[in-house]
Every structure is written in structure tokens, then in C-alpha cells.
Specification:
alpha/beta; 13 helices; about 30% helix; five-stranded parallel beta sheet; seven-stranded mixed beta sheet
Amino acid sequence: MGNQGPDVIVIGAGISGLAAAATLAEAGARVVVLEASSRLGGRIRTDRAWGMPLELGAQWIHGREGNIAVEPARKAGCDPSESEDAGHWWRRGGAPDPMLNERDWGREYPYERQRGLRLGQAQDRYEAKRDMSVEYGPYITAVHRSQEVYEYGAELDELDSKFYDFGEEVKGDDLVLRGGYDLLPRLYADRAKRAGAEVILDSAVTAIRKGGRGLVVFSKGQELSAPHVICTLPLGVLQSGKVEFDPGLIGAHAKQAIQALGMGLLDKVWLRWETPLPMEPGWHSSQDIGAHDPGAEFFFAPDLTGNQVALAFNAGKAARSLAGKSPAEKVAGVMRSLRVMFPNLPDPSDAICTDWLRDPFTLGGYSYYKVGSTPEDRAALAERQSSGLIFAGEHTDVDYPSTVHGALASGLRAAEMALK
């Protein structure tokens, strides 16, 4: 770049930042990407320690028809494929639950939609009008509430009843990445570098100030200046105040929106056994496991790995209660839930656990509509700030928040804005 310096500084080498960098560099812009951690991908993180791709962050491409992530994933070698997603419900002790197994869990419930009303309150009001004395009534209610917690990584009393599920839905089956999700950000990183962009790892940004050629970014003892800065820091990091912004850099609505939205949490515990397990591939759940019990959502995935491997999820309050705990404590909590369904399930031979809340470069999982927040908050973050600062990331996408394709779209949008 010589003495001219970059045209655009991109903060963060997750999928939104790398997509922006590749697009800008291929258009002829001089680009520098600053990444705080020692790896690419952000909340896309694939572990291959067991000789197979295990997703520690993003797990699926949600919907295949017209999804902008599908074709790049194919080109990257991710091998997007349909997965075994059949659901299996169990009674305590290991007996199948025919009523819950036959129920259509995709049906909608006519909750009251009101901004500022907690989703938990809306569900309470709806259920108060129903005959809960019927068989399975309480269980169906509990299961539906649990599904919302796992979908958004937040408790029902944290979600806004009007906007909690706001957004467009991509049609078609969800896809798993048999070749590994990490190949997708690597594709964009390679494109950016071939076009001349510089990607610097281990370079946490501490401040963004006015000055120089427009904006000055302070990072690990160095200062870089550019007319445009694309900031893809996760919402949790923005909310923490770890990165200083000069007064006036962020518009009033965008500044308010950062605190208005919520940062959810979904953690994973991957388990491996050396002997065959007594279960079919797919989801396994029990009416006797509450949403706040570790491992209440459990996915047996031999079809994805060719091994006796399963994935247990911890969401919302359950995940926060386990943040900072040892892997042994997390595995023990999950196994207590799994043995409700499978009493004789042996201890796993190995485990890999995530802790996204304690990761200083994420401070959570993905954004959600906290009580009182609206789509206008995401829209405010998606606007160019008057200073030349542009935000990107899943939390800035109105149509597809909390998804990889939403993050990808936001990066492409930010690049287009910087080129104008």
C-alpha cells in the first residue's frame, strides 16, 4: 500500500468482515483487516481434533432456497448437505413417547404481540385461556417454551413478544457443512488476500477516533488511518465498552440500539464414545428435562461424522450458569439429562466444550430482540454513521439476524456503502 495507507479498515475477520474485505479489494480498494484473535472466522469455528469437522460455533445454513451462503459454501468445499433431523421424544427411563413424537411442533401459537411485553407474559396470558387439564397440556407448554429458548439463546422474559421472531425466512431444508464451516471464511480471506488486502491477526482494536485521513484505529500499539472503517465487532463486545469510540462517531439511534438489543448465548458440548450407542440419528428430547437443564437439546450425529458422536446444547440461563465452569462439570450436567432418556448410557471417552460468553472477542452467541427493541434498531446500526464509520455483522441485518447468511449479507452491504 506504500505511503498512501488503506482506503478502508475492516475490524474483525469473521464472515461479515472477510466478505466486505474481499469485495472491496476486488473492486480496487486498499484494505486492512484487523482481527483480535489468532484465527479467522469469528463465530464460525470448526474443530478437527477428532479427525472430523466439529462445529463449535455456527452449525447450519438455515434454508437453502436463494440463501446467499449456499453457493460460496459449495465453492469453498464445505459440502452443504441435508442432515438427519428427525425428532425422538422419550419418557423417563427410555420408553418412546408416541404422543409427543407424532405432534407437529412447527405450528404457530397466537400469542399477544405487543412491543415491550415480555414473551413469557404473552405465553402466560395465552395459556390462561386454554384448558391445561388435558393430558400433556403442561408438557406441550414446557416443550414449546424450551424451543424458544434454544432458538434465540435467551429466556422468554428477555424476548420482546412483538418482534422476537421478526425477520425473513429462507425456504428449504437446513444444511450442514460436511467439509467444515471454517472453509467458508477461509474462501473470503483467500479472495481478499489475492486482491491485495492485508489481514492482521492478534491485533485487538482498543479505540476508534476522528483524525488523520478521516478515522484513526488504535490497535496493539499501532495506529492506522482511513476514510472508512467497517466495524464488525460482535454486539456483546460493542455493549461491553471495551472499544472506545470518539463522541459523535456513532449516531444517536445507533448508539441507543447497541444497548437496546440483547446478546443471546448458545453453548455446545460435543461428546464421543468408543462403543455403539442405543439410539437413532437425529434430535432426542424428553418431557422430563426442563429448558434450564444442561443438554436438554441433544443431537446424535453419526451420519455427519461416521463416529459415535453427539452434540448437546446449553442455551440462555442454563448456558450462562455454566460459563467459566470446567469441561468435566459441563459434561456431568449434560450426562444427567441424557440418562433421563438413556439410563444405561456410558460415560463418553472424550468431550469438547464451548464457552462463548467468556471469549473476550465475542462475549456471547448471537443477537436477539430484547424487550422493547425493534427492527428499527438493527436498521439504525446498518446505516452509514456520519463519521464514515459503518457497522456490519448479524446484529445489523434486519431480514436475517442471528444467522451466517445475515452476517454475510451485512458485510456485502457495508462494502457497497464504503465504495460509494
